[in-house]
Each structure stands twice: as C-alpha cells, then as structure tokens.
Amino acid sequence: MALDHKYRQLEERYNFLQDQCTLPRKLQKTAIPLRDEMVSKAQRKIEELRARNETKINSKQAQNRILAGELVQQTRALEQRENDVVRNEDTCDSFDVWQQSESAARGKAVGVIPVEVAGRHCKRRGRGDQGVAAARTA
Prior knowledge:
By secondary structure, this protein is mainly alpha-helical. The protein has helices spanning 2-110, 129-137. It has one domain (9-137).
C-alpha cells in the first residue's frame, strides 16, 4: 500500500512536470512563427527604406553632377569675360597712349601743347580698377 501511494505521488509529480514542460513548448511553437513573421516584416521595411534612400541619393548625386557641370561652364565663361576685360583694358590703354601722342604731335606741329585729351574713346568695363589690376597680376 505504501508503494501504491508512493507510485501515485510520483505519477502525479510526473504529470505535473510534464504539463509544466508542455506549456512552454506549445508557447514556443506559437512564438517562433510570430517572431519569424515580425523579422520578415522588419526586413521588408528595411529594404523599402534602403531602396527609397538609394533613390534619393542617386537623384541628389545626379542633381549635383548637373549643378557642378553648370558651375564649371559659368566659371569658364566668367574667366573668359575677365580675360576679355583685361585685353580690352590693355587695348584701351594702348589706344589712349597713342591718342595722346598723336594729339601732342599735332599740337607741336601746329604750335599748341594740349593740356588734356578731349575724352576717352574706350570706356573701362568690369569690376573697376581693382578687378582689372588683380586680373593683370594673375
């Protein structure tokens, strides 16, 4: 009788422990698919964000390339205009010197010494004398 009683107690403990182990296994079987589903959703979301960001980056890079090209063209055009201004200034200076010398020569031939040349035929353009002086030294 004592053995039957001990056997029943052991059987009850075994069933209790088996129930205790069965419940976590069932929960785990349910939790694993849920976890996998959540992971796959998160991965899809990450891929969508990555694709969206790559598209934005590619768009910005293309826009930067276009703007850089325009900047290069505008810089070259500006440099060309500055070179033209320097050449124009040199031409005007040479013309002014020639005009003054011709005027002085005419005045000596006639016997009149010109005090000042009537006016400049070349007008300075650009950013003023500073820009021209800086361009000449460059």
